[in-house]
Amino acid sequence: MKRDKGTKAHQCICETCQRHPYSTIAKEHRAVNRLLAGLDEKNRRRFIGLLALQWGRGSVQLLHEITGISRVTIRRGRTEVQSLDRKTANRVRLAGGGRHAVEKKSLRF
After folding, report:
1. Any idea what the Cα angle at residue 6 is, between residues 2 and 12, rounded to 5°?
2. What pLDDT sits at residue 3?
3. Which of 17, 19, 34, 109 is the most buried (most CB within 10 A)?
4. Residue 47's pLDDT is what?
5. Maximum distance among all alpha carbons in the chain?
């Protein structure tokens, strides 16, 4: 299976992984990062949000250290998991994102 460019797994910077890189916890953190490397941004956000819900208090900061994903994104994923919206279920981003059509930017019209 060919991997996309830029899907390299993040190195965990938590204290446990720094002190004991071969521990069970460090192996779990590496597994989470390998899984995240294969997901698109919506599923990555929702998976991390689910972990944040399961782990409870202090999980957002810990997941930020483990994955490198911003705390705002983790909170957003947590909110998305709590209230899944059927309108945006098949979309990676909200409507209106991306580049504008070339015709819109042209001054000739």
Report:
1. 110
2. 46
3. 17
4. 94
5. 64
Cα 73–Cα 83–Cα 66 angle in degrees, nearest 5: 30
Q: Is 99 helix (H, G, I), strand (E, B) or coil?
A: coil
Work out the average pLDDT over 17-22: 88
What 8-state DSSP symbol labels residue 38?
T
**Which residues make Cβ contacts (< 8 Å) with residue 77, sequence separation at least 6?**
44, 45, 46, 47, 48, 49, 50, 52
First to last CA, the chain: 47
Long-range Cβ contact pairs of 84-91 (< 8 A, separation 24 or more): 91/42
**Residue pointed to by tokens 């919506």:** 42
